[in-house]
Amino acid sequence: MNQLLAPALLSIVVLSGCGGRAPDPVDEIQSGDGALSCSQLRTEITANTHAIQGLIKEQQAKTTQNIVAGTAGAFLLVPWFFMDLKGAAGDEARAYQRRNESLVGRYNGMACKPEMKLEKQAAKTE
Fold first, then answer.
1. Residues 6+ away with beta carbon under 8 Å from 123
2. Dihedral of alpha carbons 90, 93, 98, 101, sign
3. pLDDT tens-place string over residues 43-93
4. Quick one: DSSP state of residue 22?
5. Where are the alpha helices (DSSP H) in the chain?
6. pTM, whole model, 2 decimals?
7. Residue 98 contacts by C-beta under 8 Å, 6 or more apart in sequence?
């Protein structure tokens, strides 16, 4: 039994790096931002807000999946291979939030009407 435990634990450590997708955060400032009109800024902010909401839902689903896999993994090692430990959705949601903050600052700085205030989205990462 001891001869099987060490390779199994080593496999878990090695394969845990495979769990989940790598984050692909959006850049806070992008080329062409300076040329955006008030209407285009509003459209971009709205699209980013929808993306944030989708990523928050994804992160919540991954958290639930990790809890289930972690609990099942206490009895069987196999479910641990399906845990998402990278937190890509949370990283991406925070990047969109930073981008929106930048875009709202640009929008308000251009004296666009109506003035925009940005609500923080709750992107849990734990």
1. 52, 55, 56, 59, 89, 90, 93, 94, 97
2. negative
3. 999 999 999 999 999 988 888 877 777 776 666 655 555 566 678 889 999
4. P
5. 2-16, 38-73, 88-109
6. 0.70
7. 28
